[in-house]
Design a protein that fits this description.
It contains 7 helices and no strands. The chain is mainly alpha-helical and about 130 residues long.
Length: about 130
């Protein structure tokens, strides 16, 4: 893919996101969009598909250790750190949201989502009190 084609593809991917958020993107396109911010001027579709194939899901990618992410061909330490930063930012967001007076645990789904984001990818066993 030439640089112009890559640039056009990246722009089309961003426009697709703007039109329908993540719901309108395939799982590999969601990862591809993230990779475009870490890997400039290169086609990242195959790397996104390789990540999905290697870790089986977006959750698997986000929960993977940095060492395993950076072992994937074409995924640098810089890119692996960006991927892990996404999870940590989401965890902080949920923690901050839970501190908000308006946040309520109104269903088992809310508990499950919060716990999954906070401790879902940890390798060691932990205990969480809500």
């Amino acid at each position: 893919m030439t640089s112009d084609q890559q640039s056009g593809h990246r722009e089309r991917l961003k426009q697709k996101f703007l039109k329908s958020d993540f719901a309108g993107l395939h799982d590999y396109e969601q990862i591809e969009l993230l990779l475009t911010f870490a890997i400039p001027r290169q086609d990242v579709k195959d790397r996104a598909k390789l990540l999905i194939s290697s870790f089986k899901s977006i959750q698997g990618i986000i929960d993977a250790p940095i060492s395993e992410l950076s072992a994937i061909p074409g995924i640098s330490l810089h890119t692996a750190i960006l991927i892990k930063t996404v999870k940590e930012l989401c965890s902080e967001y949920l923690a901050d949201k839970s501190q908000n007076e308006q946040f309520t645990i109104s269903s088992p789904e809310t508990v499950k989502d919060f716990a999954r984001m906070k401790i879902g990818g940890l390798k060691q066993e932990v205990f969480l009190v809500i």
